[in-house]
């Protein structure tokens, strides 16, 4: 009798129920994440504020409604991620024209930047600001390092020390850059950087690269002071100026006539 | 004199010494070497620094060979360095990581090895410059200059072969450039590259081959050359700077034993200590950052170690698009041009003593060094060479200069290209003029003494500045040099002036056309005679008006003094009544 208490389908039912519960909660959580992702920027008042800020600070070059002028490109379709990158890094609003927009002190509060990003994002379909879990530095640093050396090191240097491009353009150093901004840079290709879209470097790859860069930020060199990570040039200058300088000091001391 | 019976029994050391002496004659050797005299000057120790760095290289390098594995077989890294765990890499790179992170003291030894390599070539280069600018390469030391030059080249070779061993991204990029340069040589390039790398770049052979060169051939050559170099220093004896009692047939200084044995021994530990201090506090070549070599990625800011920098710079500064297709071969002049220029530069450096000797025709031995100003054209040639090298060297870091000083890479490159041609000429001219001016100043001081800044009013109202004659040691230093006059092209036995003779005459003119002759004893005596007259004239009034007016000295007093010189042939005066010499001289009038 006892063994008849349990239906033969009981095990299967439990499994199915378990799957439904776990899958459902995952989907719900996912939805919550997605919801927060999109709701992060878009409320009507925010859009309104963003538009006002845009008209006051951006429209003189990018045109009303972001259609672009001869001075600056259109912002339709660049997405909120692009606006967030440019404004939150202090590159925009631009101060002067040049081969590349310079990093300056940030001009707006976080809320204002979010509002501008929301407004620019609403102009057309473009990449949204990545969520915190997409940019968390908990990926695979080994893979990130390899991807970084293959895709990024030719301009940014193998340790992210930055490098020169043509005619005054340059790839900036990547020390202590916020995770979101690294992600946005890859996604939108600001200034002279190419776009690394999700088909080229998947979101997982991007996360790995961020993980690698954060590892470099957080772990000082095992060998001692790093000389700015500039490699053999800094090392050569160091040995000539400090190393030989010290040694010559000693030779002068040894060669001095005793009184 | 002690009694034979009560003579002390020889001590332990004396007995061992006697044992050695009776078998290998140490006493004679010690006597010979221990009495070697070396002069004291800081600049004579630069070569020593190179030698000690080399010793440190040998010690640290031996340690590294215990753990390094020069194989290019692929393995999966499973060591302690997180960001490379599970990555595919060559055994060479893996063992370098293991040395850095798992061998006790390994990272320190790697850094000691690398920093001392940089110091070795740097101090050797500085030593070469000292030898050049003081004319220490003149007869009988021409061959030793060539040996030293070869040591410097071997230092570069040793450095480069070592740089490439870890098989990381940076060294692989460096090898790729070398491969490109080799392939750029027409006809044989591709074959040589294929032989060197054992097929296509990068292959699986190069690290082991470079390792053989790095730990065997190159150090062996350096040791042999170093032995020859030092042996010749013993044969030639050391040079010394000009000064009273220092001649071409003596050496003034201290004996090797005990003074220099102690000094040099101590100095070795100082150099070792400096290298250790730097290695323990500053990272060099953090290979773990670069990852294993993979031919596809090329990192920005890829540079060679400093001593190869000038060659990298030559490549960077060469104009691009210079390829030509002649006789069915590609002639990549953007690679061949820097290659040829570098080789010519090296050749000129190595052969310079012979060139200068041909121009001067000087067959005498020189053991007293020149002051750089007393050989204006040689010093100027040296300065031009240093500038040329420095521009090439800086050319290797055009990208870092552009980013760190916020300039356009193209502008920096163009500036360097122009500088490479213009700056050596400017340096030559400026150095030659400076040397000649300094010589004139020396002559002036020898003849008329130093300006004291004391202005004296003469009885008739004229102001003059008091000059103080230099002492005889200083005077010797100022006048003990010779000034060559340009030679004319002379006809040979057949009465013909050959092209070679013409060339030599032209070069001689180039070297010695502008010259300042040292003040002769006759001239000095003549000018001192005037001083005595002057002293008598001003003996009394000078006491009264001996106030210092430094501000007025240059502007007002000097033209006045010059005028006196033209009128009365008196240019300077001695401070009266201050020294007994002045008192003694006074009655002469």
Instruction: Count up the helices of chain B.
Output: 22
Largest interface by Cβ-Cβ < 8 Å? A-B, 59 and 71 residues
- Describe the global form of chain B: globular
Shape of chain A: flat
Mean pLDDT rating of chain B: 85
Radius of gyration of chain B: 31 Å
N-to-C span of chain A: 114 Å
Share of residues in strands of chain B: 5-15%
Q: What is the quaternary state of this protein?
A: heterodimer
- In percent terms, what proportion of residues of chain A is strand? under 5%
Brief rundown of the structure:
The complex is a heterodimer of chains A (259) and B (589). Chain A is an all-alpha fold.
Itemize the secondary structure elements and their pairings.
The complex is a heterodimer of chains A (259) and B (589).
Chain A: H1 10-39, H2 44-57, H3 59-62, H4 79-88, H5 110-122, H6 132-135, H7 141-151, H8 153-156, E1 163-164, E2 170-171, H9 179-188, H10 203-218, H11 232-255
Antiparallel strand pairs in A: 1-2
Helix pairs in contact in A: 2-5, 4-5, 4-9, 7-10, 9-10
Chain B: H1 12-24, H2 26-34, E1 37-38, H3 46-65, E2 74-76, E3 88-90, H4 91-101, H5 106-133, H6 142-163, H7 169-184, H8 189-197, H9 206-236, E4 240-241, E5 254-255, H10 256-281, H11 287-290, H12 306-317, E6 323-326, E7 329-332, H13 333-360, E8 368-369, H14 376-395, H15 398-404, H16 409-448, E9 450-457, E10 463-468, H17 472-479, H18 499-512, H19 521-538, H20 541-544, H21 550-568, H22 580-585
Parallel strand pairs in B: 4-8
Antiparallel strand pairs in B: 1-5, 2-3, 6-7, 9-10
């Amino acid at each position: 009798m006892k063994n008849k208490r349990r239906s033969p389908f009981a095990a299967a039912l439990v499994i199915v129920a378990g799957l439904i519960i776990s899958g459902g909660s995952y989907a719900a959580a996912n939805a919550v994440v997605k919801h927060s992702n999109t709701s992060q920027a878009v409320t009507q008042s925010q859009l309104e504020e963003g538009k006002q800020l845009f008209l006051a600070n951006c429209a003189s070059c990018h045109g009303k409604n972001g259609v672009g002028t001869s001075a600056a490109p259109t912002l339709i379709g660049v997405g909120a991620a692009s606006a967030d990158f440019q404004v939150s890094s202090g590159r925009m609003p631009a101060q002067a024209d040049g081969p590349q927009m310079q990093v300056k002190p940030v001009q707006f509060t976080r809320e204002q930047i979010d509002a501008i990003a929301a407004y620019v994002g609403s102009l057309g379909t473009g990449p949204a600001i990545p969520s915190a879990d997409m940019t968390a530095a908990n990926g695979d640093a080994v893979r990130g390092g390899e991807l970084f050396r293959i895709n990024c090191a030719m301009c940014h240097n193998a340790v992210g020390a930055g490098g020169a491009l043509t005619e005054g353009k340059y790839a900036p150093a990547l020390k202590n850059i916020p995770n979101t901004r690294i992600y946005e840079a890859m996604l939108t290709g600001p200034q002279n950087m190419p776009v690394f879209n999700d088909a080229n470097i998947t979101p997982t790859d991007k996360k790995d690269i961020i993980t690698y860069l954060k590892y470099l930020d957080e772990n000082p060199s095992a060998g001692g002071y790093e000389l700015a990570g500039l490699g053999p040039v800094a090392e050569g200058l160091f040995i000539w100026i400090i190393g030989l300088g010290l040694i010559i000091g000693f030779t002068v001391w040894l060669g001095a006539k005793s009184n | 004199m002690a009694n034979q019976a009560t003579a002390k029994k020889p001590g332990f050391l004396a007995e061992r010494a006697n044992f050695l002496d009776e078998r290998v004659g140490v006493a004679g050797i010690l006597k010979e070497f221990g009495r070697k005299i070396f002069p004291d000057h800081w600049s004579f120790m630069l070569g020593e620094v190179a030698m000690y760095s080399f010793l440190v290289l040998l010690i640290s390098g031996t340690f590294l060979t215990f753990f390094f594995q020069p194989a290019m077989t692929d393995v999966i890294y499973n060591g302690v360095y997180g960001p490379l765990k599970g990555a595919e890499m060559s055994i060479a790179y893996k063992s370098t990581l293991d040395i850095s992170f798992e061998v006790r003291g390994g990272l320190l030894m790697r850094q000691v090895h690398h920093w001392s390599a940089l110091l070795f070539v740097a101090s050797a280069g500085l030593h070469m410059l000292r030898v050049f600018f003081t004319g220490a390469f003149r007869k009988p030391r021409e061959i030793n200059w060539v040996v030293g030059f070869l040591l410097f080249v071997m230092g570069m070779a040793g450095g480069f072969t070592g740089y490439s061993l870890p098989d990381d991204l940076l060294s692989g990029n460096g090898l790729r450039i070398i491969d490109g340069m080799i392939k750029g040589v027409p006809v044989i390039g591709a074959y040589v590259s294929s032989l060197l790398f054992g097929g296509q770049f990068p292959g699986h052979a190069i690290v082991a081959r470079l390792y053989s060169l790095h730990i065997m051939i190159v150090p062996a050559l350096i040791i042999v050359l170093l032995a020859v170099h030092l042996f010749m220093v013993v044969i030639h004896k050391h040079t010394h700077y000009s000064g009273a009692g220092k001649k071409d047939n003596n050496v003034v200084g201290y004996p090797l034993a005990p003074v220099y044995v102690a000094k040099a021994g101590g100095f070795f530990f100082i150099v070792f200590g400096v290298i250790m201090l730097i290695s323990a506090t500053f990272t060099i070549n953090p290979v773990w950052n670069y990852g294993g070599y993979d031919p596809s990625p090329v990192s920005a800011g890829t540079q060679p170690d400093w001593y190869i920098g000038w060659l990298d710079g030559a490549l960077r500064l060469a104009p691009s698009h210079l390829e030509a297709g002649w006789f069915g071969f590609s002639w990549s002049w953007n690679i061949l041009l820097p290659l040829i220029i570098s080789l010519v530069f090296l050749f000129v450096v190595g052969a310079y003593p012979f060139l200068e000797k041909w121009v001067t025709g000087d067959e005498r031995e020189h053991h007293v060094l020149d002051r750089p100003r007393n050989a204006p054209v040689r010093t100027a040639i040296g300065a031009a060479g240093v500038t040329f090298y420095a521009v090439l060297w800086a050319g290797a870091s055009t990208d870092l200069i552009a980013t760190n000083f916020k300039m356009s890479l193209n502008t920096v490159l163009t500036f360097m290209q122009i500088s490479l041609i213009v700056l050596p000429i400017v340096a030559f001219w400026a150095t030659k003029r400076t040397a000649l001016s300094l010589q004139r100043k020396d002559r002036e001081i020898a003849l008329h003494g130093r300006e004291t800044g004391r202005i004296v009013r003469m009885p008739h109202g004229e102001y003059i500045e008091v000059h103080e004659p230099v002492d005889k040691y200083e005077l010797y230093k100022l006048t003990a040099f010779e000034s060559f006059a340009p030679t004319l092209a002379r006809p040979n036995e057949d009465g013909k002036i050959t092209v070679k003779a013409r060339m030599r005459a032209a070069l001689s003119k180039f070297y010695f056309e502008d010259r300042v002759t040292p003040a002769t004893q006759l001239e000095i005596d003549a000018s001192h005679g005037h001083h005595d007259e002057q002293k008598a004239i001003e003996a009394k009034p000078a006491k009264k008006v001996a106030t210092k007016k430094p501000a007025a000295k240059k502007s007002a007093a000097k033209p006045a003094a010059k005028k006196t010189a033209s009128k009365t042939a008196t240019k300077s005066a001695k401070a009266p009544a201050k020294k007994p010499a002045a008192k003694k001289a006074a009655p002469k009038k």
